[in-house]
Amino acid sequence: MAARIDHLVTSGTFSLDGGTWDVDNNVWIVGDDDEALVIDAAHDADAILEALGGRTLRAIICTHAHNDHIDAAPALAARTGALIHLHPDDLPLWRQTHPGTPPDRELADGQVLTIAGEDLTVLHTPGHAPGAVSLYAPGLGAVFTGDTLFQGGPGATGRSFSHFPTIIDSIRDRLLTLPATTVVRTGHGDTTTIGDEAPHLEEWIKRGH
């Protein structure tokens, strides 16, 4: 059975630096009819379990540790036995949401995760958060960028733990070097492609966000 990408949108709130905002998050499920992994367990463990449809959940991968991307991760892990994976540079953010429940595994740049015969390579893409990662799945023609790259530009860098020059370096050096046809599956909003976004890098640098 060929691996595929399933998608659902969950709704909740994002909180940081004393503010709270309503958000819709993309949850990505990569796998086949038997097994899968979840990228960003956002808001609603019940909805994610329903979307899994009885498949064995092998891992919960966190693109970064802002609360809206990880708030349902411990509940989903408890109900499935799946291990939570996070880059260690995002542990300070993780502890703001789940102070008593550490993640299970560390993600590292260049690490390869395999599910249903497909390899996903971890790319450390800091800037939106120190431990932000993207996951490149060449066999599926996709890169999962969390909040690093969106349709129309970089993720936000105006709050704690973020840095605009760093996210620009991540996008330029780690993402825009991927094949132009690669579909960018983002943490919020619509998909795009590397080829559609690459021509606009200098515009983003000039505008500063």
UniProtKB/TrEMBL annotation:
Keyword Hydrolase tagged: yes
Annotated GO MF terms: hydrolase activity
Domain of life: Bacteria
Keyword Lipoprotein: no
Gene3D superfamilies named in the record: Ribonuclease Z/Hydroxyacylglutathione hydrolase-like
Organism per entry: Streptomyces benahoarensis
CDD domains on file: metallo-hydrolase-like_MBL-fold
Keywords, sorted A to Z: Hydrolase
A family per Pfam: Lactamase_B
Taxonomic classification: Bacteria, Bacillati, Actinomycetota, Actinomycetes, Kitasatosporales
Transmembrane segments: none
SMART domains attached to this UniProt entry: Lactamase_B
Protein name (Swiss-Prot/TrEMBL): MBL fold metallo-hydrolase
Positions of the Metallo-beta-lactamase domain: 24-188
